[in-house]
Amino acid sequence: MKCLEKTNLSIGTENGGRSPATTYSDSLIQMGILNSDNNINVKYFKENDIDPNIPFLEHGGYSTIHLRHHFFDLLLECIQKMELNDLDHLLKKKYIQDGSLINKLCFYVGGLYGHSPKLPITKATPPTHLYFRRKPYFVEWDINSLFLCSTTATIRLGSRSIYAIYGIIRNIGKITKDGTEFIHIKIRPLAFGSPKITKDRTPNIHYYKNNFADFDYPDEDYDES
What we know:
This protein is an alpha+beta fold. It has helices at about 25-30, 40-45, 60-80, 85-90, 95-100, 150-155, 205-210; strands at about 5, 85, 105-115, 130-135, 135-145, 160-175, 180-195.
């Protein structure tokens, strides 16, 4: 994943403050990056003059990779204990009107636009964002630049890219863009990156008009289960 929020959501803690362990906990504890409760070891950051606000950029080698995977595994554990919704299915007026979208955990797979923060990233670097427009919706994820995991991920934010992104819907309002009013949906991102599987949103009428010439038929051993 290209960006991770340093959080364990509402998964709770074990044994009075101990965070859940992951495959990478032991190695991170051995390196001193995590303490015995599987939480960030602030003392380690101070002793090694590492900015704890940039946890995924200032480590080197395996320690950085392990820390990223540790938090991603925590996210996966959270997803297993919470209801995960496809954002495409939530963009319906009935959900907007009854207010039931707030605090829903959701994912989106598709093209997003954004802006790259200026390098190098420091504490003073302002947040950036990813977004898409789909009338009547303007959906936006505010990205904390400090949690970007790599320079390439930062640069890619400046152009339209295909992402898989997970987040929690925090607010619904209105916004005007280029003279058009949209329903503005703000989502707190938890993780995003390049997906292994993408979604085809081409309307069925397109395939009918072209006699299914460019329809991507599944392989014979395709399993829909």
